[in-house]
Write a structure and sequence with these properties.
This protein is α/β, with parallel strands linked by helices. The protein is 25% helix and 20% strand. It contains seven helices and ten strands. The strands form two sheets. The protein has a five-stranded parallel sheet with strand order 3-2-4-1-5, with helices on both faces. Helix 2 (60-72) crosses helix 3 (92-100). The protein starts with a strand and ends in a 26-residue tail after the last strand.
Length: 252
């Protein structure tokens, strides 16, 4: 039989897919991609003989039937998802059905939008002598979130945060984070359609998060980076001339 590869396509920029992911797309007999979030430019190097299908309007059963059909013909299947499959990738249920049919699959990681948005704004989630933790989360919507993981509770850690899939209610993001103890002056980066031609990054503060999102019309495909250490002027010890480690003896 053939094999299914779940490929993280990255945030949208066709140059931000992994070399391995692009190779599998070139070799695949079926390229099944999430067209609502993955631009066609990402799969442009698929073989002319490959079957290319947009899964945006398909159900789980339909995508499984299509992948199974091509695997049984001995073909490679490239199942292309946005970002990284391990984050809000909806692959567990697909993998479960493949396992039930004894179909082999592999997951190829991708660049997630949090990292792409930070890079686009020259920002860092962690800072020396400051926050060392990044929380990746989302606000509750049609998909529930455990009560212990609501934004107010997570804000109490005071760490960096990347908030996905929550552009529909920026007022609530702002309210819950401040209520949880975060300073209204906390730096925020709002990234819109990062990796796409129309990408936009806007820097603001927590107190202006909702107003900034509204002013810019950020209603979907938006990520909120909460960066308490963004303006810190601390330095890492790694390159300090007086810092010794296994590769260098520090100067006295």
């Amino acid at each position: 039989m053939g094999k299914v590869y779940f490929i993280g396509a990255g945030p949208g920029d066709p140059e931000l897919i992994t070399v391995k992911g692009q190779r599998i797309i070139r070799e695949a007999g079926l390229v099944l991609y999430a067209g609502s979030l993955v631009p066609e430019s990402v799969i442009a190097e698929a073989s002319p003989s490959a079957r290319i299908e947009n899964s945006a309007a398909m159900s789980l059963e339909e995508t499984n039937s299509l992948m199974t059909l091509h695997v049984l013909k001995g073909e490679t299947v490239a199942r292309v998802h946005t970002g990284d499959p391990s984050l809000y990738g909806a692959i567990q249920e697909q993998a479960r059905l493949l396992k039930q049919s004894s179909i082999e699959y592999e997951i190829i990681p991708g660049v997630t939008s949090a990292c792409a948005a930070a890079a686009a704004s020259n920002a860092s989630f962690t800072v020396p002598n400051g926050t060392q933790t990044l929380i990746i989360t989302r606000m509750e919507g049609r998909t529930p979130v455990p009560q212990s993981e609501n934004l107010e509770k997570l804000a109490a850690h005071g760490s960096a945060m990347a908030i996905y899939l929550s552009a529909g209610n920026p007022e609530r993001i702002q309210e819950e984070l401040i209520k949880g103890g975060m300073s209204a002056k906390t730096p925020v980066i709002i990234g819109y359609r990062i990796g796409w031609p129309e990408e936009k990054s806007v820097e603001t503060t927590l107190s202006k998060l909702a107003a900034t999102a509204e002013e810019n019309g950020f209603k979907r495909q938006t990520i909120f980076l909460i960066l308490p250490g963004k303006n810190a002027e601390t330095e890492s010890l790694l390159y300090d001339s007086g810092f010794s480690h296994m590769f260098r003896k520090g100067e006295v």
